[in-house]
Specification:
Order of helices and strands: HEEEHHEEHEEEHEHE
Strand order of the largest sheet: 1-3-2-10-4-9-8-7-6-5
Distance between the termini: 27 Å
Number of strands: 10
Structural class: alpha+beta
CATH architecture of the largest domain: 3-Layer(aba) Sandwich
Amino acid sequence: MTWQLSKLLTAAARGGFPPADGSVTVLPQPSPRDIGVASFTCHAVVFADVEPAWVHERIAPGDLAGPLSPPFLTALGERVGREANNIDMTTVAEALPGPPPLELVETTDRSHPRITRALRHRDEVRAWTTADGGTLVIGRGVAGRWELAVEVEAGGQGRGLGRRLARAARHLLPAGELLWAQVAPGNARSVRGILGAGFVPVGAEVLMVPYGGRG
């Protein structure tokens, strides 16, 4: 069933959004790991192995805030035996040609917190570092999509390194591929960096994770 959510996400990334009719679509979860809610303009998608009737009983028709509201996420968490992680802004960008315009060194060290976190949420994880304290991680996340994570050490912050890392990541994918980045809306520095790297907002998303697995 992965293709259903994957097809929807790819269409949204290329401007083919679900109808802005206030409805909620329920899709099977794409893998045992990935359960959550994706929200677009006036349309939400619940991807979990739950009955559509169960979802629609808890979200009134036209309740645009309902799918990402604490009451529904709490109920969904109890239903699937998990808890809600962060509600993130989802952004996407297309791959860019040529080598990255930033000197990156690939690392197999899996002890870095950012890499450790990526291994919990993604497959085919690869990571690179820079000499000035940057870490870039790419892997396949929800429905097999390519996802990005970056981190800049305190000493390297404030100089645009996060933005350059995010843009460099677009050069690491094959032509025609899409790269997704989830960003906490309150992290204004990261939001500015991602947008500056050419990513565009698509919607919002929350993943349901095992208890104690937030972050």
